Amino acid sequence: MILWQVILVAWAGMALAMLLFYFVQRRTKNAGIVDFVWAAGVGILAVFYAAVASGSPERRILLAVLAGIWSLRLAVYLLVNRVWGKSEDGRYQMLRRNWGDKAQTFFFAFFQIQALWAVLFSIPFLPVAYGKTPLGPLDYLAILVWLAAVAGETLADWQLARFRADPASRGRTCRVGLWRYSRHPNYFFEWIHWFTYVFLGLESPFWWVTLAGPVVMLLFLYKVTGIPYTEKRALESRGEDYRRYQQATSPFIPWFPKREAP
């Protein structure tokens, strides 16, 4: 397939998937399903690129395995912890209230925009899928980055889930493990994960395309859907406890905490 055809098929597939799950959202009244579809869709696109591209087989297999496992872990986590049997996430409840009678019209557009974003985030996979050189030291470095990132994100998610499961933690801020050194260690390791494809794609003439992954992800985490909203909700629910946590703890990159004010 020609490159533009690959991208067009990727967009059509994601648009169809988002359309189907838009109707699931209408029935369940839980728009959080869009996060699960996005996470699963990006991984599926990586596998699709690996299947149809003309790069070396070992490079395409490595892309499918790394991106596929990352996607599966994130999608399952979102499904189990934010969608399945859970009330709708506060972000989408707020949108539903703000949009009022036109909520379903706006949600339809929102789901389709997420389809476009999924394709955008999958673009860094293309230089890897079309790379023709044998695997080398940079690719092994990419595997190490991937292992560290996925392990760190998994550990951060587990530590937070364990903290929240304790009734004594209600109304308190998690300062356990990685959360002692960063207010958002899960976001940090998610960002680090996207450097995997930078190293995998460095042998390609179009390696610079892979930079879109960490750059766009950092933009989203800092300015769009990540840190601003999460911290706003945390201040509303935990107040002064979270303000002390903000003053003492690095917002993103893990670092030694300062002493909290009494």
List keywords for this structure.
mainly alpha; globular; transmembrane helix; UstE-like; membrane; transmembrane; DUF1295 domain-containing protein
- Summarize the main sheet: none
Count of spatially separate domains = 2
Contiguous uncertain segments of 5+ residues = none
Please give the share of residues in helix. Answer: over 70%
The protein's oligomeric status is: single chain
Mean pLDDT, all residues: 95
Which geometry do the CA atoms define?
globular
Order of helices and strands: HHHHHHHHHHH
Number of helices: 11
Distance between the termini: 63 Å
Count of β-strands: 0
What Rg do the Cα atoms give?
20 Å
Structural class: mainly alpha
Strand content: under 5%
Descriptive report:
The chain crosses the membrane at residues 6-24, 36-55, 61-84, 105-128, 206-224. InterPro entries: UstE-like. One of its GO terms (cellular component) is membrane. Keywords: Membrane, Transmembrane, Transmembrane helix. This is DUF1295 domain-containing protein. The structure is a single chain. The protein has 262 residues and is mostly helical. It has 2 domains: 1-135, no CATH class; 136-262, no CATH class. 71% of the residues lie in helices and 0% in strands. It has 11 helices and no strands. It has helices spanning 3-28, 33-52, 57-83, 90-99, 103-122, 125-129, 137-165, 185-193, 195-200, 212-224, 227-248. α1 packs antiparallel against α5, α4 crosses α5 and α7 runs antiparallel to α8. It starts with a helix and ends in a 14-residue tail after the last helix.
